[in-house]
């Protein structure tokens, strides 16, 4: 009797937590357990904002090539070509222009025709004809006011090849914080407009989710009506004070030419100058706020 009673208590202790748990929601079920914040009438408002900001980073690369029978001479010639350019660009300062250079070499072998008439390299150590040295320079322009002059300086240096100019946006933390604040305000505006149009008023805030995740489908009890909120961002201009539409002043004066010569002259740089305007990049953010309704 005692053994059966103890066994019954054990079963009860195991079953009680299982009965107390809410089964997980399954998408497609007819009835889905609602979260605690939906026991009373609520409105879930998804604030979405976007702003256009001028790119504040530019990237370009170039390479110089030299071929010689001596690997040392080939490397020296390529390094000499890139040295004057890297010194001229480094004179702007690492806070405005960052320059990375490297030199690589590879052997060029004698060639022969095989039995099919195809030219092939004779890749033997004693069949090296010449050495090819490639000196590359990778430039990151952190002050985009200088991109036109930096690019013209590279072109005037007459490299073997020049890469495409790429732009990117590296937003400051203050921009992100202000855009998140605008998303919260947008959620409030949308909720107030919806409640007023429905003949109700907003109650107290129940949930604030800066990620906007709570307002997405499965979290909000899996109702598909909340899934179609994307693509309705509000364009904001109030972020001007934080630098989203920064008005760049004139570029700083060019640095003095590096000693030793070899760098392109001022006339050569101006002759190679082209218009390069940083494009506008889009920043977006969202926030979910759930209000009670009165």
TrEMBL record:
Lineage: superkingdom: Bacteria
Pfam family name, one: SIMPL
Signal sequence interval, chain numbering: 1-20
GO biological process: DNA damage response
Residue ranges with Pro residues bias: 249-261
Disordered, as annotated region: 243-265
Keywords, ordered alphabetically: Signal
Residue intervals passing through the bilayer: none
Protein name as annotated: DUF541 domain-containing protein
InterPro entries, per database record: 26kDa_periplasmic_antigen, SIMPL/DUF541
